[in-house]
Amino acid sequence: MRALFDTKEELVGNFVHVKGEEIPILHIDSLEEFLTANLPIRIALLTVPEQSAQQVLDRLIALGIKGIVNFTPRILKRPSDAKDVQIVNDCIGASLYKIVYQIYQKS
Question: Rounded distance, CA 9 to CA 64, Å?
């Protein structure tokens, strides 16, 4: 099961359609309930505001997530007691810049 989480009330309750699958947008407050009910989800993509990134990362790790791709502009660190958790810090802005540069260099 896959889901997206947000705090914006206008998004919560909607669905994103990906390859024929409806993926729900749930409120971030239901993160623990969703992950507990849908074990074993092991990977999360983190795209939250910079100021809440470490807090959400810590929540995900506490819930058993083992792989996290961090797209926030902040380098995150796993807690010292979470040595089995893998984190990839990849700034989405930098990635977009790289692809735009590559496209326009070939033009």
Answer: 27
**Structure tokens that stand for 59 in this block:** 């929540």
> Which domains, ranges and CATH numbers included, belong to the chain?
4-105 (3.40.50.720)
What is the DSSP track for 26-56? EEGGGHHHHHHHT----EEEE---GGGHHHH
Q: Which of 35, 80, 39, 40 is nearest to 59 (CA)?
A: 35
pTM for this structure?
0.77
pLDDT tens across the length of the chain (107 residues): 789 999 899 999 999 998 999 999 999 999 999 998 987 889 999 988 889 999 999 999 999 999 999 998 888 988 899 999 999 988 777 777 788 888 888 66
